UniProtKB/TrEMBL annotation:
This is DUF2268 domain-containing protein. Keywords: Signal. The lineage of its organism: Bacteria, Pseudomonadati, Bacteroidota, Flavobacteriia, Flavobacteriales. Residues 1-21 form the signal peptide.
Amino acid sequence: MKNSILTSITAYFLFSFSANAQKVFTSDVNNFWKAYDKIVQTNDTVLQYKYLNDDYLSKGTEGLKLIREARNYTDKDYINAINSYPKFWNSVRKNTLKSKKLSKKLNSGIEKLQLIYPELKPANIYFTIGALRTNGTIKNGNVLIGSEFAMADKNTVTDEFAEDVRSARRLFFDSEPIKHLVLMNVHEFVHTQQKLPLNNLLSNVIYEGIAEFVSVKAMNVPSVAPAIEYGKQNNEKIRARFEQEMFTLNNLYKWLWGDSPNEFGVRDLGYYIGYQMAENYYNQAENKQNAIKELIELDYVNEAIIEDYVTKSNYFSKSLEELQKDYENSRPTVIGIKQFNNYSKNVDPKTKEITILFSEPLNGFNTGTDYGELGEAAFPKNTIKKSQWSADNKSWTIEVELKPNRKYQLIITSNFRNTTNYPLKNYLIEFETSN
């Protein structure tokens, strides 16, 4: 009798959650294809934009509005994508139209998630069509599915994509994402329960990895993300590279959410880093359900909590403090200026070049300058197009036009990189010209 009552209560609770907790919206998919059919029938760009707005964007759900904001999709992005990849769109169309049929399966996945995380809060789910920048994301507590990627399969055509992204997309499509749509949806649903990460690579890797690990535990299936399988097989070299780059601000899209090239040929490897950390943390925990709660509710703003989590995950080869020191010690520096000493107060205004000297050879490609605190007025007039590297890449020269009796500032930024991709330490050049 007791078991019967408990079973009834559990069944009622899950029914109540699935009936009231979230709704699934699919109208954006049908609206997109109505617009698409009109757009491809004309070369008149004015009409193309009109059809896009009249039949798709203006009729869009709140989810379409949010995914456009989340991925900065413009009208032009959609028109360019439609015109550039006709084979792709034709190959994925049939799958995207299955969205309404798949809605019930999504609800069953959310019910499984609540079994391991009873505190689950409701969220709406939107099937949308994006412009080829995400298979799924969240915003304002809503799950946003980019159906053109999330519902692709091994028959989805990639021939039209640029060579530098084609192989990564082929690998993703061959993993048959449509067959694992429920798992992906649960992953995104976990995000609606999490606190937002800080805007750095490590926080975002932890955030994504936790969502992937928890979704896998809820569904009791292995991850199908190519990055996870590849990472498991190549952990040592991936970890070594990540430890070199984890403190660099502009490496985010190399490790997450993008097609930026890397030496491994597999995108989104940050998911693996975070996944392995979450798995290690879970495995060492005595109370597994409490570990799931701790993972989902991790506070990314609290440095002590994050450091404790990283320590318990036992993934990195050294402590964060040691890795930070290694990183700073490996960064190249500016060691001087050829034409004058920094902070000089009597620089000849007839000086036509400024040559920056580096502590080691840089990659000869990445450059970057910025204003100092005195702003644009103190920035020396220069023509960056005429800048040049020395033969050994240990110096970089720009042409300048200086005026007498003026104070100048110029920041040489961390966008400069050495041959192993460590960023330069920012360096302020400040000087005054003579009369």
